[in-house]
Amino acid sequence: MGFAGPIGLKGIPIIVDPSVTAMNDSVCGGLAKDLHYKHAAWGRDFDAWKITDLRTVKAGDRCPLCSEELYEKKGNELGHIFKLGDKYSLTMKVSYLDEKGKNCIPIMGCYGIGLDRTLASVIEEHHDEDGIIWPMSVAPFHAIIIPIKYETAVKEATDSLASALEKLGVEFLVDDRQERPGVKFKDADLIGIPLRIVVGDKNLAAAKVELKERKEKESRLLDLDKAAEEVYRIVREELVFLSQ
User: Fold this and answer.
1) What is each CA distance from 69 to 18, 55, 60, 137, in whole angstroms?
2) What is the rounded distance in angstroms from the CA atom of residue 78 to the CA atom of residue 158?
3) DSSP, res 94
4) Do 98 and 180 fall within a single domain?
5) In sequence order, which residues have a C-beta less than 8 Å from that of residue 236 and are 6 or more positions away?
């Protein structure tokens, strides 16, 4: 197809995009392998049976109506097809006659928004190189508590914080696995829980815990006795904002 062109083409209609009519020094196929014409000009070397809008636009092209530049933005199809089989056609006694006059039950399907595609669309829009960044309104949990070592004073502080968050209605996880802190942090980033609370001996010496929002790069210290209220405030404010 790279050697096809309008010059000398016979037997089929030539349809061109309006942009072709502005070309007066172009290159086109010469209707033979490895043959091209240079300096081809519309109206002199070839005409068209019809001029119509055929071109696939790209970012930077000008709008023919307002002359502004076109911009591109990646999208994601939220709906998808559900395969229903004959479940509903049998229930509703739907049938049709085929070309041989035989009574047949149709196979059904529908198009709509499903949970799995919705979650995939959210992740497509909210992620970084480390994993998911769940918006608070759809996150499986609002917060995750990560004790550096789930024992002694750290365990006591973790359990106290968990109890306070539960009373406030904050949904959370406690990562009490016997794993290195780096593994726990990496897993928390991967699954994308919005708030990460780290409880460790070093900060507990000053009665503080570390709070980091998944969407932010920096963490900050909170007083242990005020941490639950601060987490609750962040959760409520973001839920209100996302519901507007």
Assistant:
1) 18, 16, 5, 36
2) 39
3) -
4) no
5) none
Number of domains in the chain: 3
CA 84, CA 167: separation in Å to the nearest integer? Answer: 43
Could you tell me the two tokens for 124?
Answer: 């497509």
Tens digit of pLDDT at every position of the chain (244 positions): 568 899 999 999 999 998 899 888 999 999 999 999 999 999 999 999 999 988 888 899 888 789 899 998 887 788 888 899 999 999 999 999 999 999 999 999 999 888 888 898 899 999 999 999 999 999 999 999 999 999 999 999 999 999 999 999 999 999 999 999 999 999 999 999 999 999 999 999 999 999 999 999 999 999 999 999 999 999 999 999 999 8
pTM summary value: 0.65
Using an 8 Å Cβ cutoff, are 149 and 179 in contact?
A: no
* 147 and 227 assigned to the same domain: yes
